[in-house]
Write a structure and sequence with these properties.
The chain is of the alpha/beta class. Helix content is 27%, strand content 25%. It has helices at residues 19-22, 38-48, 82-92, 106-109, 125-135, 169-179, 214-223; strands spanning 8-11, 24-25, 29-32, 51-54, 67-69, 73-76, 95-98, 110-112, 116-119, 138-141, 154-156, 160-164, 182-186, 199-202, 205-209. A three-stranded mixed sheet has the order 1-15-14. Strands 2-3-4 form a three-stranded mixed sheet. The protein is globular. The model has no long low-confidence stretch (mean pLDDT 95).
């Protein structure tokens, strides 16, 4: 069931409200599971204003978990196949790279928009350089709310940022400055602070888990700059 907003939808995949594990989106496309239900595809197209690209990463449906992306490039887990990286590069028209280090869940360990990226502080220099080259932005090592898996506890677009509700106000201010956006703290899926696992978003909208409450939706609207939308 949608939420009645042109920029927002609530959805599930096989009954699972953790949309951010399964979907990775940019300004132009949403990578979705190969067998994603048509209802999810329609919601992604409606809220995000993008084409949907059914594609496996590491032979799995976990595009959100196993990739990080912006308008310039997409970084994939070390478990990804070269054929998948090449197919995504062709389909999306952007750079692609495979991280070969131990941080296999690229979506959990990288947070990026078109201005900057932050990564797990334990990421080795070679991986940091590959991420910077692929995404075409400055990459900083930083934790959020005490968590090194920055992509799991935050969602950033070119319009706003949403952080784990344990983040401090000065963290929010610093990250807003780094990414060149405004933002807020919050939760999704009825109190889950790991917001990166709960949704996918770009500057035009977001798709969050069906369990997300009305109060949480208002915080998402605030974080992503849609307070006065629709």
């Amino acid at each position: 069931m949608g939420v009645g907003l042109l920029h927002a939808e609530r959805a599930v995949i096989s009954g699972n409200p953790f949309i951010g594990i399964y979907v990775r989106c940019t300004e132009k496309a949403a990578i979705v599971p190969v067998n994603a239900p048509e209802k999810l595809l329609l919601k992604c197209r409606s809220a995000l204003k993008v084409d949907t690209v059914p594609m496996a990463i590491a032979g799995s449906d976990l595009a959100g978990l196993f990739s990080a992306a912006n308008s310039n490039g997409i970084v994939l887990t070390g478990m990804a196949y070269r054929e998948e990286a090449n197919a995504l590069k062709k389909a999306l028209g952007i750079n692609s790279a495979i991280l070969r280090g131990k941080h296999t869940a690229a979506g959990n360990n990288i947070l990026a928009n078109d201005k900057a990226a932050i990564v797990n502080p334990e990421m080795p220099p070679a991986d940091v350089k590959k991420i910077a080259d692929t995404l075409g932005v400055e990459v900083l090592k930083q934790s959020i709310a005490g968590f090194q898996t920055v992509g799991s506890v935050a969602v950033v677009t070119n319009r706003g940022i949403l952080l784990h509700n344990g983040a401090a106000e000065d963290e929010l201010e610093e990250l807003c400055d780094i990414f060149g956006v405004k933002g807020s703290i919050g939760t999704a899926n009825m109190g889950v602070p790991f917001v990166g696992l709960c949704m996918c978003a770009n500057s035009k909208g977001y798709v969050t888990g069906e369990a997300t409450s009305g109060f949480e939706l208002s915080r998402l609207d605030e974080a992503f700059g849609f307070v006065n939308a629709d």
